[in-house]
Amino acid sequence: MTQHTHDRLLIIDFGSQVTQLIARRLRELSVYCEIHPYQRVTDAFLKDFAPKAIIFSGGPDSVTREGSPRPPQSAYALGVPILGICYGQQVMMQDLGGLVEAGKSHTAEFGRAYVTPAAARLSILEGWFEGEKGREQVWMSHGDHVSKLAPGFEVYGTSSGAPFAITADLSRNFYAVQFHPEVHHTPRGAKLYENFVRLAGFTGDWTMGAYREDAIDKIRAQVGDKKVICGLSGGVDSSVAAVLIHEAIGDQLTCVFVDHGLLRLNEAQEVVKMFRDTYNIPLIHADESDLFLGALEGVSDPEVKRKTIGKLFIDVFQKYANEIDGAEFLAQGTLYPDVIESVSFSGGPSVTIKSHHNVGGLPEKMGLKLVEPLRELFKDEVRSLGRELGLPDQFIGRHPFPGPGLAIRCPGEITRDKLEILRKADAVYIDQIRKHGLYDEIWQAFAAILPMRTVGVMGDGRTYDYALALRAVTSVDGMTADYYPFTHEFLGETATRIINEVQGVNRVFYDCTSKPPGTIELE
Ligand code: XMP
Question: For a tag on the chain, would you pick the N or C end, based on fewer CB atoms within 10 A?
Answer without folding.
Answer: N
